[in-house]
Amino acid sequence: METPQQMKAAVQRCIDGHKDELHALSRDIWSRPELGGNETHAHDTLVGFFSRDEAWTVQACYVLPTAFRASWGPVGGADGEPALNVGFLCEYDALPGIGHACGHNLIAEVGAAAALGLKAALETQTELPQAVKITVLGTPAEEVIGGKIELILAGAFADFDLVFMAHPAQQDASFLPCITVDEVLVKYHGKAAHASAYPWEGVNALDAAVLAYNNLSALRQQLRPEWRLHGIIKRGGEQPNIIPAYTELEFYLRTPQVKDLCVLKAKAEACFRAAAVATGCRVEIIYPGHCYYNILPNATLAKLYENNGKALGIQFQEQSANFTGSTDFGNVSFIVPGIHPFFYICTEAFNHTENYTEAAGAEKAQLFTLRTATALAMTAVDVLCCPDLLRQVREDFRLAKLKQEKQLIDDDTALTAP
Prior knowledge:
Layout: H1 4-17, H2 19-31, H3 40-51, E1 57-59, E2 68-75, E3 84-90, H4 104-122, E4 132-138, H5 147-153, E5 162-164, E6 167-169, E7 180-189, H6 205-219, E8 228-235, E9 246-255, H7 258-279, E10 282-286, H8 299-311, H9 329-333, E11 338-339, E12 342-344, H10 354-360, H11 366-385, H12 387-416
Parallel strand pairs: 3-4, 3-5, 5-11, 6-12
Antiparallel strand pairs: 1-2, 2-4, 7-9, 7-10, 8-9
Helix pairs in contact: 1-4, 1-11, 2-4, 4-11, 6-7, 8-11, 11-12
């Protein structure tokens, strides 16, 4: 078996040798932005990218219409031995009106590049500590329905041993504390009446929506600094001379950990119900989608990634304690050991802005994107070549889950204590 350094050199040569092809892949996705669940062009582009090499087994339609699975291997290890499955995730959905303002085209490129690099490092190895295979999973609709959660529920991650992806941001970081988020839809049902002739006959659903909005605004003063709630009134009535019989609000509730989200949801629901009581409306409180979990840290993978990144010239800044983004990768981190670093793309613009859209498609982002992919693949090499590191990664994962579960139990105990 080659040394890890020799294998890492193979990773670099491969990714550098495919840099034009990888840039074209990313640019193609960027130039035709598609909303979550409708990423047909991005999906077909990625499927075509992997299908060109017959070494990859590609399932073009996998669980979701715009998801895919591409597998390679196994290689190395003893005959009949179960293979370690190393996963790389691609996202490729865009945002309404502003395209790839979260850089998901670059996430797709990182996933594809890292998988190619690791394959190049492994394909000539015959004496690995354990057989290895690589799986690339196309995970659509991160921005809307949580495609990864749908894939989890369908068992798509059941055979994964490690999982890697990276997200564009304003800095390079091996870990940022992404937080939980849940969407709530609130519907108020009142009674229509002429707003001038006989308003007393009506039950004003808009009053309920406005009161609910103001209730939540007042609630913010009493919330912990790291908790977030934000939303809009989606429907506020039909016209001024009709007492609104129906209104609708949509809010996102965010906390650093799942245990906190239960508390925030209870507080928010009290605000929604109070507005209904005050106005005489009937209220429906609906959670239409999946809850996105916080990301579990893995100290061993983070340290390995930082070491490889620094060797490539990545400069890691002090990690922010106030990052308040959310991702469905958090749910993945609860079932498979993994890492979700963030990477700088040569812009000071913030995600979800038009300036970030421009930066995500710019050529100057390529150095940072492919450097990140190289560091991810090198981190996989480290773990695959050293069984002790693999054991430590798994132990970190076990302890992180245990800590979360203990906090949930302790909080439940505190709430029910006499």
